[in-house]
Design goal:
Radius of gyration: 24 Å
Number of helices: 12
CATH class of the largest domain: Alpha Beta
Helix content: 25-40%
GO molecular function, one term: FAD diphosphatase activity
Largest sheet: 6 strands, mixed
Distance between the termini: 83 Å
Protein name: MoaB/Mog domain-containing protein
Pfam families: FLAD1_M (PF24102), MoCF_biosynth (PF00994)
CATH topology of the largest domain: Molybdenum Cofactor Biosythetic Enzyme, Chain A
CATH architecture of the largest domain: 3-Layer(aba) Sandwich
Amino acid sequence: MNSRLSLVARHLTRPRPTLSTAAALSWRKSFPITAMASASTADERSSRTIHTAACLIIGDEVLGGKAGPKPSTNSNHMAKWCFNLGINLKRIEVIADDESEIIEAVRRMSDRYDFVVTSGGIGPTHDDITYSSIAKAFGLPLVLHEEAYALMKKISKPHPGQPNFSWDVDSPALRAKLRMIELPTDENRELSKQVIFPCEELWVPVSVVNGNIHILPGVPRLFERLLDGIKPYIIDRLIDPEGKGTVRIIISTPLPESEVAPYLTELAARVESKGVKVGSYPRWGMKTNTVTLVGKDKEFIESITPEVVQAVKGNLVTVEGEDDETEQPEKN
């Protein structure tokens, strides 16, 4: 077809693309939708104070050991992001591109944690099923997002491998691109609460489903930029809106774990009521091990640090391993 097609209008007015009435009823029998999927509950989830978080990494390639960026790249960035904001990251899971796995995981995480991020499975190919799976999880239709479509056309650069691509002509390539902006949409809630654009220079939206599930791409560079861009949207919901986050004190000790274990056990019990966690980590092949004090009460943690340093005969360090010395094999 050579004339301009009303492609967007077709997408916006067509029946729900993945959930016909019969299909929706079938899915509700297989995966019963509880009260947590109601509009009022979703609104409550989108405004509650954020204490806990979870991260769901989706992708066969991650489980298959695909070469390239380390599978832990996104989860590691998520962990640091949460730590710096004082959010308690409670769970990180990696699952396959499997519809039933995604449905089960997002429902469970949405119910248990205040803030949930998914990574991966939102590209243009057949195995990118995150949007459709999460839509089914909460009985929602996939709807083409007009603003995202306009930004995609404006910001996207022509690909040398698609010299004849046109936004005005229906084609498999165009339909593939549109899959990336057909988002799970609750028609009973404000659209602005369900889709955000954290980075002005990117057309990529962050779909927010059931009030607390934030769907991000798996490409580490995009994941990191979008997650960092979400901060202004949630800053008022943090326990500490000033962003002081969590405090971590790192102590390097030359003593073996078995030597410091009795003291650290007593210390952990003593400081638990203050929300402080005591950690001990062996560093194989090195002359020192690591002891950590982690919590939100900076004043209290700093007050007990000298005692801990003395008890483990250690030294304060800024970065674990900065005083590394490799153990030398004993000479015969």
